[in-house]
Amino acid sequence: MFLIEIAHPADAFDDADRDLLADRILEPLLGAGHGPAETLMRAALATHVAFRELRGWRTGDGPPQPGFAPPLIVTVTVPDEWREDGGARHFIGVVRAAVRRLDHERGWDRDLGSLWVRVDGVPDGCIGLDGKPATAADVLDFLTEVYRASVADGRAPEVPDGKLLDPTCGMFVTDAPGVIALEHDGVRVGFCAQGCRDAYAREHGLPV
Question: What parts of the chain have a pLDDT lower than 70?
Answer without folding.
Answer: none
